[in-house]
Amino acid sequence: MSALIEVNQVTMKFGGLTAVKDVSFSVGSNDLIAVIGPNGAGKTTLFNMITGIYEPSSGEIKLLGEKISAKKPSDITDLGIARTFQNIRLFNNLSVIDNIKIARHTRIHYSFFDGIFRTKKFKNEEQLITQESLELLKLFHLDDKKNYLAKNLPYGAQRKLEMARALATKPKLLLLDEPAAGMNPTETKELSELIRFIREKFQIAIILIEHDMNLVMEIAEHIHVLDYGNLIASGAPREIQNNKKVIEAYLGAEV
Amino acid sequence: MDYYLQILTNVGIFITLTLSLNLINGYCGQFSLGHAGFWGVGAYASAVYGVFFALPIDPSLNMLISILIGFSAASLCGLLIGVPCLRLKGDYLAIATIGFSEILRIIIMNTESVGGPRGFTNIPKWTNSFWVWGIVALTILFMLNLKRSAFGRAIISIREDEIAAETMGVNLFSFKLFSFIIGAGIAGIAGSLVAHDQQFLHPNNFNFMWSVCILVMVILGGQGSVSGSIVGAVILTILPEILKLVNSDIATWRVSIYSALMVILMLTRPQGIFGPHEIFEKHKAKIS
To answer: Is A181 exposed, middle or buried (0-12, 13-18, 19+ CB in 10 A)?
Structure first.
């Protein structure tokens, strides 16, 4: 099976600091993998490179065989990678449904002039977008809040909306950056079901950054562990739990 | 009667200007303080056509050509200024745009063939209320339809959060540049209307104070609101005239009254009269 995304010996340097060093892995088209590691290990930097916010200092990232590591973030979204953010980044002063509609941007077929002159093509497509956006909101149980401003949603709902918005770009790969941050155990439980459901429903690959080990061990099929920018271990959850290097990275070495 | 008609024409011109700045400042969230520069470029370009190159055809056809020239000249300036400046953000962008608009004004001031500091005279009178209000109507329609299309949503998302917008597939630079060019172009059309209405132009009518004045109209009405821009432009164009009518002594205080009004507004309604909303909106966003 060919890989959906290949990360090839990627290094990211900020001046003298090497945030990510020689990291390589690949993800299949319906995999659910997790990236874990102590704070400052380079996990979010890795996401920023995959989504094009940073350009790697060396190495390359390929999506379905096409090199994406020098492309603009907007072009990478167009190719099929979507993400959520560690600190939620919604369009706060816009309604819930508009947040979703914006994410459809790269999938619009009508031209600028269709929009200005409100042609039939424009109206039909906008109707379809509204309908699809509502369906998506329904999956996340947010449809009754569609006219709320995004900033007025409760925290958990904002996290869900961010995921829904990422899915609205119709991605092949979804990157979730600490989706369980700030959630209580019940909410985390719901979240793990939601993530599984997303993978089944949309048939996409998911990469997850998470500190909540219960969540990670429960849903991830494969785990990569980063420490100081190095990929120190990868494997199935049980292997990772017993990996000596991982335990050292988290708890320190025995003296 | 002529006096009132002139005020009405000015109102129309300022509505157009305010809407064009609202595209840059309200929709896209780019803090531009050089709007009078684009307005001036449009005005002078149209006037140059009117004085030196006017074709022996019907005045309304000539006016149409003049408007197109005003639009093209101003949007070309928007492109030239936008490409280097839009890499800057917030205050830095504001300062760069002030700089560029002042450069444009000083170039005009020192160009002898357009009258330089004496002003540009003998511009043919081609415009009338029909032109002014026709342009106002078209601009309103353009702004409303843009807001309701995917392209308008993309521009507004840049105002809300640049990084999120980029991750949702919005090409930041091209959409910023687009709003800058079109905003400048519409200001150029307003310039064309001024030139052929007043038949006289002076570089100082397009200085920094006017950029601020247009910005105040946008903010008073509400950034991102078309209704707001209309109301803001109407209030701030008519208010000084009313103050003049009531008592000419008050007129000398109008700038102070302006500032007092702004302070009161910012204290009571910092989002402007309408906020980002329109007068008629099908689904108003709920507060909680």
So the answer is: middle
